[in-house]
Structure formats: C-alpha cells, structure tokens
Amino acid sequence: MFGAFRPTSFVSGGLLWKNPWRLSPTRKANQRKRLKRVDDVISMVAESGVTTRSLVKALALPTEAEMSPRGKLKCLRLRLARCMQVVYGQRREYKYTTFSKRDPGYRKSQHKVPKWTRLTLRENPKGF
Known about the structure:
The protein is an alpha+beta fold. The protein has a domain at 25-112. The chain has two helices and four strands, in the order ααββββ. It has helices spanning 25-47, 53-60, and strands at 72-77, 83-88, 97-99, 107-109. The strands form two sheets. Strands 1-2 form a two-stranded antiparallel ribbon. The chain has a two-stranded antiparallel ribbon with strand order 3-4. A hairpin with a 7-residue loop joins strand 3 (97-99) and strand 4. The longest helix is centred in the first third of the chain and has 23 residues, at 25-47. The protein is elongated, with a radius of gyration of 21 Å.
C-alpha cells in the first residue's frame, strides 16, 4: 500500500472537493457586491434608452436592496417608547438560498449550485 501505487484520497473515498455547508461572511459580502454591480449595470443600460426583452426581464427581478436578508425596518414609536418593527421586501432566506425541489425545505444554499456566481438566482417559483 505504501509506495508508487498507494491509493489516493479520491480512490479511498475521501472528499475531493471540500465545500462548506454554510456561506462565510466574506462570501456573503462578495455576493452582495456582485448583486450591486449587476444592479448598477442594469440601471445604466436602462438609462441609456435601449429596450430589449432581456432588459425588461432584468428590470422585473428584485434588486439587491429588495433582497435584503434583514428587510427594511421601519420603526413606529408607541406610547411606552417601544419600537414596532415592520419588515418590507422579500423573505429573509431569499438572498443566499435558492429553490430546490429535492431538498426537504425546498431551499438550498446558493453556493451549492454549480457556477453559482455566474447564474441569476433571484427568481423563485410561485408559492416558494
């Protein structure tokens, strides 16, 4: 077993590609930057006056600010100096997860999708 023909980790059944089960804060920050850059490009093309079908589809997608995981909070002052939080926008998990019909909760983390940095993962099926 030791020598020129010793088994590699792949042959032994070890993990070949190590992929964390959760997105790190750095990867989340990079994802937010990526979404903002795409939104900027879409708005610049829309301002130029060009109209195409792909631009209409892109404008229909939610922006990065609308996909905020915390939502936009609006504070309403009450009598006892309490603050009631009203959350607007999409649900919390939409920014970093995508629809998956094979997962138990029908959601899976974006970084589990092949080539997830190059895909538009902002759309979800109706009802999910």
